[in-house]
Amino acid sequence: xxKCMIRPDFEDFRRQCVRxxxxxxxxxxxYGFFRNPNPVRDSNKNRSFGSMSEYRKFCEDNYPEYFxxxxxxxxxxxx
Length: 79
Fold this sequence. Notes:
The protein is mainly α. The protein has 3 helices and no strands.
């Protein structure tokens, strides 16, 4: 028989998972999301754009890069 070796730091994670799975689905959904306030998106202004490039330019100028609206950079050449 093969004994599974689990690192000690994963044991706490495993216990957390077991606790979370014991909760009802409604509680998991309720506590599984968080609100990330965004002053640009939440400003209650309606915006329309004449083209997709205008929209992308607006997003690049107004949103932080970690929101995922930045255009991907050029691929680095393989060494």
